[in-house]
């Protein structure tokens, strides 16, 4: 018997009390059997829709035979290193027309074409439970004809691979091969959604290997994203082998993926319509990950954080750590960076302009300049001596530096140089 969420159990109890059987079927069964929390639930019953709508007056009528109950809540991440997600379930209450076995025939795969009655007894006309146990994806009906009509089905297949580690039976594999060109011209939003979902599954590595084996990589990165560099091919294979060892954070795994395409990184990244916030972080990853990697003292780290913010520091720091895992790199630099950051935080060392004991008004009041924009500019320059030594974060010292920077272009230009006597 599958584990049902509380909301689904409450729906089933209402039907039971009214004397109607309910059969859960479809992808909710697949997810539950495979150990995942299913979001979408198809509930079939012989109860007429008018009675269903009396029982569930808040339901949304989405067809003659279907009422939808939406118990979901969108949880927006507080940080880029966390994943946005939905909590709760969506339940479609569907009135049967004919036997449940006929209804199950509409599903694409045997793992979906299985159901479970209210009392826990199974309906499994296609042997879907056995196929799930063997992690084998098998079709219901003519899969080649289905893909020709709905080529986005190819990406659903690959999503199942990434989420649950399914192998493809020969019929599905051949159908994808013969319809490969159709799969590459599916709407890019659909491809991105299925790609991201598969990349955050427990079997993302297997998904990447199958993506390459089926010659569908071009649909993700575009024809201009591919490169013939042997190192990129080697890195892709390494990523496929080890990505499952990293945390399932969508943008972090996408960063690991796109950074493999070193030569044509930006062309690969921009082929699919990434979300604006994700694109902001991923666009800079090629430049800022190496920059952060070579921040080997507190001054360099504070300078990085002041320029790009804690959000980007945390993202690129964790992306570098994930790269160390994937490519089995030495983590000494990572350990050193963590130790430096810990000390900076413990000592409450000033990092941002706002952390300094003076502001632009103080520079104007000291008579250094009467131009507000110039004062703000000088204030930004003062971060250099403050980052070098937190003891410089004193009013008299900072105003002295501000006077020097204001008078001398040379002092401004070489402010980050430590002169040896």
Please supply descriptive tags for the structure shown above.
alpha+beta; Beta Polymerase, domain 2; two-stranded antiparallel sheet
List the helices and strands and how they pair.
Elements: H1 6-18, E1 23-25, H2 27-33, E2 40-45, H3 49-55, E3 60-63, E4 66-70, E5 73-75, E6 85-87, E7 90-95, H4 100-104, E8 115-117, E9 122-123, H5 128-133, E10 136-137, H6 143-149, H7 153-164, E11 167-168, H8 170-178, H9 180-184, H10 188-199, H11 204-213, H12 218-221, H13 230-242, H14 250-258, H15 265-269, H16 276-293, H17 298-326, H18 332-346, H19 360-365, H20 372-381, H21 383-388, H22 395-407, H23 409-413
Parallel strand pairs: 2-7, 10-11
Antiparallel strand pairs: 1-2, 1-8, 3-4, 4-7, 5-6, 8-9
Helix pairs in contact: 6-8, 7-10, 7-11, 11-13, 14-17, 16-17, 17-18
The outline comes out as elongated
Number of strands: 11
CATH topology of the domain at 6-133: Beta Polymerase, domain 2
Per CATH, the class of the domain at 6-133 reads Alpha Beta
- By secondary-structure content and strand pairing, the structural class works out as alpha+beta
Strand content is 5-15%
Q: Which stretches of 5+ consecutive residues score pLDDT under 50?
A: none
Count of individual helical segments: 23
- The CATH superfamily of the domain at 6-133 is known as Beta Polymerase, domain 2
Oligomer state of the chains in this structure: single chain
Strand order within the widest beta sheet: 3-4-7-2-1-8-9
Level-2 CATH architecture of the domain at 6-133: 2-Layer Sandwich
